[in-house]
TrEMBL record:
Cofactor(s) needed for function: [4Fe-4S] cluster
Species this chain originates from: Cerasicoccus arenae
Annotated protein name in UniProt: Hopanoid biosynthesis associated radical SAM protein HpnH
Record lineage: Bacteria, Pseudomonadati, Verrucomicrobiota, Opitutia, Puniceicoccales
Signal peptide start-end: none
InterPro entries linked to this entry: Aldolase_TIM (IPR013785), DUF3463 (IPR022563), Elp3/MiaA/NifB-like_rSAM (IPR006638), Hopanoid_synth-assoc_rSAM_HpnH (IPR017833), Radical_SAM_PqqE_MftC-like (IPR050377), rSAM (IPR007197), rSAM_sf (IPR058240)
Length: 399
């Protein structure tokens, strides 16, 4: 994992402590959304569709820091919306660093280059730049021309100034595996520390609904992209999570591993679903019916069936590594990481049937897109109907 030794040691000793104390519901990465307002309107975004009076709300620095303190997770991912718009973002970052937390500052980087002077390079701070592929794919995904070049320039500047920089990339059914691999080369060339990958989650509120990946397609796509992984590629994930994406390990999700705090309070049960809010982290842990979520639980929630995102499953992978069998799985995953991918004929066929990027889709602002709630739900239902959902597999549990 391409992170500073101090970060790896902090996280490892934290997890060990939780395991030794027998604590089941422990957080690994707190997801802090200090606002939902953004200066982009990406087609797969599930965060910016709130009415204006909600988009105007901000989590104060005082509340954000108190929430992080109560939660106690060693890492905080500052997401949004666009955190650089938040008027107290410096105080939040400085306060979290003082608390000893490692920060992943998610940004679309439109404002990053100018904002860099507000921050000091620190091993506890990494800018996690939203990059959804090479120029054409990224600009299409964020629905604005020129954003790739702006983000790339900000990444270069941040790297030059000595900041840690990672990328976070969401992949949809329009991903062309060969071009994604070229994108990895490009990110490594500009000096990115590590790349984070996620299959797009089918947010009910996302403006475009026919782009999300089903579970079978996710595995086939990642097998294709990550097979024969180049030596120089660095990912900001555990080897076990990468094996999960390729379908080599079957993990259940750990929603409490990435608890989410935003303008409404603590969000139940995870970063992706919003089934209610509570005021304290303790209430979140004590009152959420965790067994309802994931794929193996009682009354499995259908919104979980196709979910393979890192904020639900990386914590399971990390937790698993701290058990004897999990360590074996991790070592096997690390050993297999660069192996040649062998896709079944069905997987090849499934990939070939996708609208791999050729300008095959357009942004939600296009007049041909459904605009009302009913049309959106209809589009979503039909896109879900196309994805294959297997519920019979028994995932490796979250404990
Ligand atoms: S940059 Fe992030 S928060 Fe902003 S619209 Fe895009 S996905 Fe949503
Ligand atoms: S499977 Fe995904 S959507 Fe369901 S609880 Fe876990 S992280 Fe949330």
């Amino acid at each position: 994992m391409p992170v500073p030794v101090s970060q790896a040691a902090t996280v490892a000793s934290y997890v060990l402590k939780q395991k030794l104390s027998g604590r089941k519901h422990y957080p690994l990465v707190m997801m802090l959304e200090p606002l939902f307002r953004c200066n982009l309107a990406c087609e797969g975004c599930g965060k910016i569709q709130f009415p204006d009076h909600i988009l105007k709300k901000r989590v104060s620095a005082e509340k954000a820091l108190a929430a992080a303190e109560e939660c106690g997770a060693p890492m905080v991912s500052i997401a949004g919306g666009e955190p650089l718009i938040h008027p107290e973002i410096q105080e939040i970052v400085e306060g979290l660093i003082k608390q000893g937390r490692y920060i992943y500052f998610c940004t679309n980087a439109l404002l990053l280059e100018r904002a860099l002077k507000k921050f000091k390079p620190n091993k506890q701070l990494s800018f996690s730049v939203h990059m959804d592929g090479l120029k054409e794919e990224h600009d299409q995904s964020v629905c604005r021309d020129g954003t790739y070049e702006i983000a790339l320039s900000a990444i270069r500047k941040a790297v030059d100034m000595g900041f840690r920089v990672t990328t976070n990339t969401t992949l949809f059914n329009t991903a062309n595996p060969e071009r994604v691999r070229q994108f990895f080369d490009e990110m490594m060339e500009v000096g990115v520390e590590g790349m984070m990958l996620s299959p797009g989650y089918a947010y009910e509120k996302a403006p475009k609904q026919d782009i999300f990946l089903g579970r079978t397609l996710t595995k086939a796509l990642f097998k294709k992209i990550l097979g024969d992984a180049k030596k120089g590629w660095r990912f900001n994930h555990s080897a076990s999570f990468m094996a999960f994406l390729r379908g080599d390990i079957n993990y259940e999700c750990t929603p409490w591993g990435n608890p989410t705090y935003n303008v409404f309070g603590w969000q139940k049960p995870c970063y992706l679903l919003a089934d209610g809010y509570v005021k304290t982290f303790k209430e979140l842990i004590d009152t959420t019916e965790w067994e309802k979520y994931g794929r193996a639980g009682k009354g499995t929630d259908e919104r979980c069936l196709n979910c393979m995102v890192h904020c639900g499953h990386e914590a399971t992978a990390v937790n698993d590594t701290f058990s004897p069998m999990g360590l074996v799985r991790f070592l096997k995953a690390a050993g297999n990481f660069r192996r040649t991918a062998v896709l079944s004929a069905e997987e090849e066929e499934l990939l070939a049937s996708q609208p791999a990027y050729e300008g095959a889709h357009s942004c939600a602002s296009s007049s041909s897109e459904p605009s009302g709630r009913d049309e959106l739900m209809e589009a979503m239902a039909s896109s879900r109907g196309q994805s294959e959902v297997k519920t019979g597999e028994e995932p490796i549990s979250r404990n």
